[in-house]
Amino acid sequence: MNPEENITRLRGAHRFKLKFIQPFAVVLVSAVFIVLIITMGLIDMRRSERMLVGFIEDQGRRVIGVVEKLTEENLKNMIAASQRTPGSVAFSLKETIFSPDTLLTGKIIAMGREIDNHWKKEHISGSYIRQFARDKNIWLVAVLNASGNVIFQSRPAAENLPADFQENKDMKQSAEELIKGLNTLNRQKKIGFIALSRKDESGTIILALDRESMRYWGMRVSVERAIEKLGKGQGLLYLAISDSEGHDLGSIGYRPPGEGRPDDLLRSGILSGARRFESRKTSQGENSVQEIAAPFYLGKEISGVVILGLDRGNTDKILMENRRNVYLFLVFVIAITLLSLWLLYHNQNRHLARVVEMTRQLEKAERLSSLGMLAAGVAHEIRNPLNAISMASQRLKREFPPPELEKKEEFDAITTVIRDEIRRLNGIIEEFLTFSKSRRLELRENAVQDVLRKIVNLISPEASEKGVSIRTDWPEEPVVIPMDMDKLQQALLNFVKNAVESISGAGEITLAIRKEEKGLVKIVITDTGCGLTPEEVERIFNPEYTTKEKGLGLGLSLAHEIIRGHGGEILVKSRKGEGTVFEIFMPMERLNDKAAAK
Question: Which residue in 17, 88, 411, 475 has the fewest CB atoms around it within 10 Å?
């Protein structure tokens, strides 16, 4: 047979190719389920991110709290030191000042050395002194020459200086007069100042701080000392603190410029208490940074704004891994859902096919029941009159033959026609009755070869007339199976008759017997006839289907019922124009009584 042949296996009932469309409700529920899973996954990822960012923000709050505590301690120490030390002190620039109680003094002396270095380079001028005072937030910077006269100062004499301390036009004030006026303000606790003599005694540098600048530098020194003690670590990338006026109080690390930095509006919001805490994700090169802006407290008052950046690299790795796990879980859930839908679709199709099959079997059973009732009615209504006609024709032929020889021959021919037609009608009735009783079998052990030999003897004359040869192929030793010999012969004869009728002109029919595994015997009937289409293969065993112009079309359906009654199976292989093969599988062991009755 050709590989493209149509193959249909039948075991007691036909199989149908069915498609079943899954209800929209099931698909909708599955879609809702998937959406819920995705939503829950996204919510879980966001919750994890908020939790991890919350840990970073708590760490930032702890860092700010440590800086505030250290700054406050340093500031208290400086206040206590200032109360033990006079407000005006004279130092030489040759001296090194370092003591926990003299941090502010050391910072001011360092600024004096910076002015001295510019003086050495002859870069000092009135504009430089004024700019230096503004940049460093110093109330007064004055430079005196070796003669004690003021050569540069950052501002005119203050309004609250004594009248004799007003700056003259030629700037020829003496150091004695300037110190006298500053001491007056110092006693009034309005300023504090330091006078620094140059190493070569070629001049003096005076730096004076009022309350505002004193507060600023006190905070700045305290903050710088606190930041220095804090140092880097714990994921801290940078930290910057500014006062309420925006002046830098201290910083550590590099904070790159970029968009979204706290502006004046944000600063004013933090200083006013409207914004207690600001946190956002940013970047520093390849590093991922969590930047935090918060108020800087000294005591209970907001004294400035602190901005710090914490490394969130490990946090991002954890979030990425968590996100990947959530995505994998979602893919797994979606795959399971789709697989479940497919299994449900497949299962629904299978059950629907069974329902349709049961429906068709029920319809077939109803048709068979109708045929049985029809056969019984026909037998009851027609058989008795036919018997009477048959007996009457026999009596006519026997008792009333015409005396003339020619008429007697014609009389015999007519009575023979009547007898033959009566027998044909009886055959139709028997076909109905046999179909309705085909499952009631009487099984005995017989050889399959004996059945096929009888069929060959019966069909050979008809086959020879059509030019069809019959070839046999079976083993010499008997192949014995449990069978109802008459009914199995009738079934196989119907297959062979169908094969003969399918051949137009010369052809060949092959009858073969093969022993199969699992205790089966295969009877193969092959013809070179016209073949069948796939649609015809599906319908050839239906009682109502026939391609013959004459007859009822019950032959193959009857054969199928008989084979099924024996517990057998039929495999049909056919292709249009290339012949047909019927493979009949019969069990070699006897079925129990219950199975045989079925």
Answer: 17
- Collapsing DSSP to helix, strand or coil, 305 comes out as strand
**In this predicted structure, what is the pLDDT of residue 437?**
57
Identify which of 104, 123, 99, 129 has the alpha carbon closest to the alpha carbon of residue 206: 129
Query: How far is CA 223 from its chain centroid?
Result: 53
Question: What pLDDT score does 83 carry?
Answer: 60
Containing H/E element for 89?
Answer: strand 88-92
What is the secondary structure of 475-490 as a DSSP string? -SS--EEEE-HHHHHH
Can you give the C-alpha Rg of the chain in angstroms?
A: 59
Kindly report the backbone phi and psi dihedral angles of residue 255, in degrees, each rounded to the nearest multiple of 5, phi listed first. -105, 105
> What DSSP assignment string belongs to 164-219?
GGPPPTT---BHHHHHHHHHHHHHTTSEEEEEEE-TTSSEEEEEEEEHHHHHHHHH
Integer Cα distance of 143 and 153 in angstroms: 6
Instruction: Return the structure tokens found at 182.
Output: 């500053």
Structure tokens at 75: 């500031």
Q: Where in the chain is the domain with CATH 3.30.450?
A: 85-216
**Residues found in the chain:** 598
The token duo for 200 is: 């070569």
Question: What residues are paired with 483 via a beta bridge?
Answer: 444
Q: Assess contact for 570 and 540: CB atoms under 8 A.
A: no
Answer yes or no: is pLDDT of 169 > 60: no
pLDDT at residue 524 in the model: 95
pLDDT in tens, 383-401: 678 778 888 888 887 778 8
Retrieve residue 455's tokens. Answer: 């069929």
> Which contiguous run of DSSP H or E holds residue 504?
none
Determine phi and psi for 93, rounding to 5 degrees: -65, -10
Global model pTM greater than 0.70: no
What is the b/e burial string over 508-546, where b = at least 16 CB atoms within 10 angstroms of the residue's CB?
bbbbbbeeeeeebbbbbbbbbbbbbeeebbbebbbbeeb
Tokens linked to 570: 């039929």
Instruction: Residue 456: count other Cβ atoms within 10 Å of its Cβ.
Output: 16
Identify which of 582, 549, 585 has the alpha carbon closest to the alpha carbon of residue 567: 585
Give me 334's structure tokens.
């979606």
Q: pLDDT (tens digit, 9 = 90+) per residue, 52-65?
A: 888 888 888 888 88
Q: Across 299-372, where does the E strand assignment appear?
A: 301-311
Residue 47: what are its φ and ψ, rounded to 5°?
-65, -40
**At residue 308, what are phi and psi to the nearest 5 degrees?**
-140, 155
| CA-to-CA separations, 43 to 54, 268, 368, 534, in angstroms, rounded | 16, 35, 65, 56
Do the beta carbons of residue 497 and residue 555 sit within 8 Å?
A: yes
Q: For residue 380, what is the DSSP state? A: I
Q: Return residue ranges of the chain for CATH 3.30.565.10.
A: 439-597
Domain boundaries 439-597, corresponding CATH code:
3.30.565.10
Instruction: Indicate the fold that domain 85-216 takes in CATH.
Output: Beta-Lactamase (3.30.450)
Which tokens is 411 given?
A: 């009389």
Q: How far apart, in whole angstroms, are the C-alpha atoms of residue 514 and residue 521? A: 6
Of residues 299, 292, 434, the one with CA closest to residue 368:
434
Query: What pLDDT score was predicted for residue 509?
Result: 93
Residue 87 has phi, psi (to 5 degrees) of: -75, -20
